[in-house]
Design a protein that fits this description.
By secondary structure, the protein is an alpha+beta fold. The protein has eight helices and six strands; from the N terminus they run αβαβααβαβββααα.
C-alpha cells in the first residue's frame, strides 16, 4: 500500500472514529461513481476521483446520539430535532479535521430549482452501503402507469436506517479506490415486487422495512417518535420527558 493509500485509510479511521460510536455508519465512494449513473443536472461539481463518505444512521443512533443530544443541547424549534442532531455530529467531524477541507451536504437540502442537492439513495448504492431497489429491477412490471418510487435496503438493518448526508473531501483524490457492490439482499422477483408495493402503497405501516430478516430495528420508543407528525415531535419529546419546555427556542 502506497503512502497516499495509507493517508486515506487514516482519514477514514478518523471519520469513523467521530461517528461510529454514536450509531452512524460510513462508506467511502468516489464522486465519479455517483456522477456516472446520473444525468448531468444531478452531477456533483467535483473531479471524478474526489473522495466522499455517505453517512447512514443505524437503529442505535436514537439512543447513542439523538437522546443525549436533545438532553444537552438547546434545540431550535424551526428545525427538525434529528436533523439538528445529525448536523451537530457531522459538524464535529469537520471540526476534528481542520487539516482537511470538508464539504457537507445533508439529505434534506435542496437547490433553488427544488431539486435535491444530492440523490441520497443513489449515493448509498454506488458506495455499496445499501441496495437501491427500483422499478427497473423488476422484470415483469405489474404497475402500468403508476408512479413507483425506489427504496434502499440495508443487508443488516433492512429498512430500519436512514441516509443522513454526504461528506466530501475536495482536496483528496483517490484514483486507487475500488468500488464495492451493494449486497443484493432482496434477490427474488417476488420479494422485489412485494418491497416496492409495500414502500409505495403501505409505507405508513413500515412493513417494507422488514422485507428481510434484520439484525436490529428501531426500538418502540423510536418508532413512536418517527410515527409522530414532524410538527408534533417537539411536543412528543416534552411528553416523554426527554426535554423540558424551556429546552428549545
Amino acid at each position: 500500500m502506497g503512502s497516499m493509500e495509507l493517508s486515506v485509510a487514516a482519514l477514514e479511521r478518523r471519520v469513523r472514529g467521530c461517528l461510529c460510536d454514536f450509531g452512524f455508519e460510513v462508506s467511502p465512494l468516489k464522486v465519479g461513481w455517483y456522477n456516472a449513473v446520473l444525468q448531468p443536472s444531478f452531477h456533483l461539481r467535483y473531479s471524478e476521483d474526489t473522495l466522499a463518505f455517505i453517512v447512514l444512521s443505524t437503529p442505535s443512533m436514537f439512543d447513542r446520539a439523538f437522546k443525549p443530544f436533545v438532553d444537552k443541547q438547546l434545540l431550535k424549534k424551526i428545525n427538525d430535532p434529528v436533523d439538528q442532531c445529525v448536523s451537530y455530529h457531522l459538524s464535529l467531524v469537520k471540526e476534528s479535521l481542520l487539516d482537511q477541507r470538508v464539504d457537507i451536504i445533508y439529505d434534506y437540502e435542496i437547490l433553488p430549482n427544488r431539486k435535491p442537492k444530492f440523490l441520497a439513495q443513489t449515493a448509498a448504492h454506488v458506495a455499496g452501503a445499501a441496495y437501491y431497489y427500483q422499478r427497473k429491477d423488476v422484470r415483469c412490471d405489474p404497475w402500468g402507469e403508476k408512479k413507483i418510487y425506489g427504496v434502499c435496503i440495508h443487508p443488516r438493518y433492512g429498512g430500519w436506517f436512514a441516509i443522513r448526508g454526504l461528506l466530501i473531501f475536495p482536496d483528496v483524490q483517490v484514483p486507487f479506490l475500488e468500488q464495492v457492490a451493494p449486497v443484493d439482499c432482496v434477490a427474488s422477483e417476488e420479494k422485489r415486487i412485494e418491497l416496492l408495493e409495500k414502500f409505495n402503497f403501505h409505507w405508513r405501516d413500515w412493513s417494507y422495512r422488514d422485507i428481510i430478516e434484520v439484525k436490529e430495528q428501531y426500538s418502540e420508543e423510536q418508532k413512536a417518535y418517527f410515527a409522530a407528525p414532524p410538527a408534533e415531535r417537539f411536543k412528543w419529546l416534552e411528553l416523554q420527558g426527554v426535554i423540558q419546555r424551556s429546552a428549545y427556542c
